[in-house]
Amino acid sequence: METKEYEIMDRIEHDHFWFVAKRKYLSVVLDKYFSQGGKMLDVGCGTGAVMEFLKSRGEVEGVDMSETALNYCRQKNLKVEKGLANEMPYSQNTFDAVFALDVLEHLDNPVGAVKEASRVLKDGGLFFATVPAHQWLWSPHDVSMHHKKRYAKQDFAQLFAGEFDILALSWIHAFILLPAMAVRLIRNLLNNKSNSSDVKESSAVINKIMSLLYFIEISIFKVFYSLPFGLSLLVVAKKKSSGEVAKS
């Protein structure tokens, strides 16, 4: 990401409806699939908001390639290391859960990152990941965020073939899909070539409105653990044992 995006993210991610909703989605799947007290790793930890959120559930560490991001984390006394998603500075079978939230879309080799997550996970450990969906929604936001692609559901699932069993795979951020489509269509019609991110401060009114919509959306998700459409994809995958991998 651009350096300026880290500054914006650190300022807004505790209160902005998008980041709050992402953590609420994460909370739902954690409550269903993950026991309290495990050792966790946040890959691409950014400025540390997810790590702070996870601290109540166990021991958490973070890894990121950006020194800018790591400095934000260190200011919050979070335990972080510098490293790449495809080559992390941890021993194998170290963690009970690995998180890669809006990370895989930045990588030239996301399959390698998934295999690396498998390496550092214990057998039966869980991998939680989110990515932006729908390549046809590609926009200057993706350019600014240094994305390589947006994912189709089938392509996202394929990343985990062999190493993992998928426990849950769903669209998320459903209600915001149509507004996002409209904004990006208007930008295209206006031929807006500015490579600016959609990550911006939102007003208190917008936050309240979107918080209400997300309350409804996440309440539905809590019942079905799946939504029929959305702007992003969420997966929960369980690492196979070495014997299971050999058989598959």
UniProtKB/TrEMBL annotation:
Transmembrane segments: 166-186, 212-237
InterPro entries named in the record: Methyltransf_11, SAM-dependent_MTases_sf
Pfam families in the cross-refs: Methyltransf_11 (PF08241)
Superkingdom of the organism of origin: Bacteria
Keywords linked to the UniProt accession: Membrane, Transmembrane, Transmembrane helix
CDD domains reported for this sequence: AdoMet_MTases
GO molecular function, one term: S-adenosylmethionine-dependent methyltransferase activity
All copies of domain Methyltransferase type, residue ranges: 41-128
Name of this chain's protein: Methyltransferase type 11 domain-containing protein
Natural source organism: Candidatus Magasanikbacteria bacterium RIFOXYD1_FULL_40_23
Taxonomic lineage of the native organism: Bacteria, Candidatus Magasanikiibacteriota
